[in-house]
Amino acid sequence: MNMEQRKDLAAVFRGAAMFSGQAGVCSHFSLRVSTEPLLFLLNPWGMYFSEARASELMLVDEHGVEQLGGRDGGFAAFNIHAQIHAIHPEAHCVLHTHMPYATALTMLENGRLEPASQEALRFYEDVAYDDSYNGLAHDRAEGERIARQMGDKHVLFLAHHGVIVVGASVAQAFDRLYYLERAAELQVKAMSCNRPLRLVPHDIAKKTVNQFGREREHWARLHLDALRRKLDHEHPEYAS
Questions:
Q1: Which range marks the domain in which residue 174 is found?
Q2: By CB neighbour count within 10 A (0-12 exposed, 13-18 middle, 19+ buried), where does 198 fall?
Q3: Which one-letter DSSP state was computed for residue 201?
Q4: Taken in order 160, 162, 164, 165, is the CA torsion positive or negative?
Q5: Nearest to residue 101, comparing CAs of 183, 214, 14?
């Protein structure tokens, strides 16, 4: 782990706050920095995304216990994030939010992200759906159930709840989170016109998602670097 990883994650908190990713002080972002033992960076309970600072992110173990102090990450630290990191080794970064447009889709009967916009095609055949809402994830079993629902996908829609997005890097996870909310926003607004969605045919959707997949890390890194430049100018304290 290095300070740049902390700065990247702190920047993503700030970025998510800019596009309505904040859900009070109850959502968490995490970045695994060690597998044996399992250790990951996490925001402390009660932190606004818009006040995130690199040095103030917690380093916690699989039980949600901070390694460098006595702060509390909340039950989500252990019950959701630790389970996803443990079950999905490729999920280095885990972003869980209650973004309004994406969450709106989880409230619909058989709500699905439809291949109706170019932005949605980024996620074609890469979204899992958990249609069973069991209340707050107050126990490990529920966190494990949620983690297994993700399967091999990078996005999980949680019925009545929100979304989880994972990535092999902070940049990839952030890029997915940003465009997921944009795609959901476009779909909700199109549906409000009370006319059928015009879906992209399967063969074109497959072609397009493959095009998006080329040099994914490169383009995602450019996106995160642009966010960090914006924050360096407007809110440089994020990196402290």
A1: 3-239
A2: exposed
A3: P
A4: positive
A5: 183
Tally the domains of the chain.
1
pLDDT tens series, the chain, 240 aa: 589 999 999 999 999 999 876 767 678 999 999 888 889 999 988 889 999 999 999 998 877 777 776 666 667 667 899 999 999 989 999 999 999 999 999 999 999 999 999 999 999 999 999 999 998 888 889 999 999 999 999 999 999 999 999 999 999 999 999 999 999 999 999 999 999 999 999 999 999 999 998 888 999 999 999 999 999 999 999 999
What's the count of helices (H) and strands (E) in the chain, helices before strands? 9, 7
H helices within the chain, ranges in order?
3-18, 75-76, 83-87, 100-106, 118-121, 140-149, 170-191, 202-213, 216-234
CATH number at residue 142: 3.40.225.10
Task: Please tell me the distance from the alpha carbon of residue 183 to that of residue 59, in angstroms, as a whole number.
Answer: 32
Pairing of strands 155-158, 93-97: unpaired
Residue 10 tokens, joined: 């702190």
Q: What's at 239, amino acid-wise?
A: A
CA 121 to chain centre: 18
The pTM of the full predicted model, rounded to 2 decimals, is 0.94
